[in-house]
Write a structure and sequence with these properties.
Blueprint (H helix, E strand, L loop, with lengths): L1 H17 L16 E12 L2 E12 L5 E10 L9 H14 L7 E5 L11 H9 L3 E5 L19 E7 L2 E8 L7 E7 L3 H10 L9 H22 L1
Parallel strand pairs: 1-4, 4-5
Antiparallel strand pairs: 1-2, 2-3, 5-8, 6-7, 7-8
Length: about 230
């Protein structure tokens, strides 16, 4: 416990140090965006150790065609600590990014960005290393300071802002009628309106999730099964 508490203090200090670098405004023109990457991770235990894989799927924003798929894999060195997931995920994310032959203009993460107790979810934290605009796209809502979200209307594109302590942290967005909302937030270098527009532009009939995130999620299932089987051989 003492080791975990020390890690938490170190991680929190770094989050607080990085936060002033975060910009919730567009660093680009929307028409410049050609390639969008979806990022997701999956974990499993084997032999008393924790392992993970990070999968990145890059699509053409205009045609929605898949341009590239890459993944990374390795033993996880940081334990799961609520509020500090980025420290567990970032090494695999950066390793996968190194494998890309195409440079994404924008990254969508399966997870939170500014919608985080200290505004430093994986989408925000990773952007400071990637130097690219990022969006957090979460399937479920992680309550902050006991604040619940308000359910948006049952219509595609309907949303409600998630306001905590008088500040907008993110947005509950219903991407398709008759489905549960998803929870989006700025990562960095982008504003919430533009984040919402990109997410809605990447929705099709197959999922409530934007295409890059859904494809990355599917890739993690395949990659995890592959690596788990490989370990057993």
């Amino acid at each position: 416990m003492e080791k975990i508490e020390k890690m938490k203090q170190e991680f929190m200090a770094l989050q607080n140090e990085l936060l002033p670098l975060v910009k919730l405004e567009n660093s680009f023109r929307k028409e410049e965006v050609q390639l969008i990457a979806g990022v997701d991770l999956a974990y499993w235990d084997a032999g008393g150790k924790a392992y993970g894989t990070c999968c990145i799927v890059v699509i053409n924003y205009h045609t929605k065609e898949v341009i590239e798929r890459v993944n990374s894999y390795g033993e996880i060195q940081v334990p799961y600590i609520p509020g500090f997931l980025a420290f567990r995920e970032l090494p695999l994310v950066l390793e996968a990014v190194k494998k890309l032959s195409n440079e994404p203009d924008l990254y969508m993460f399966d997870g939170n960005g500014y919608l985080h107790a200290r505004h430093m979810g994986i989408a925000t934290h990773a952007s400071l290393y990637l130097q690219k605009p990022t969006i957090g796209v979460a399937k479920s809502y992680l309550r902050i300071d006991e604040v619940d979200f308000q359910m948006p209307e049952n219509a595609a594109g309907a949303y409600t802002d998630i306001v905590i302590h008088g500040e907008v942290y993110g947005r509950a967005l219903r991407t398709t009628a008759n489905v549960k909302p998803i929870f989006i937030s700025c990562g960095d270098r982008i504003d919430l309106e533009t984040s919402t527009a990109f997410v809605m532009d990447c929705i099709n009939r197959e999922s409530r999730l934007p295409i890059p995130v859904r494809l990355a999620d599917l890739e993690t299932h395949r990659a995890r099964a592959y690596y788990m089987k490989k370990e057993e051989e």
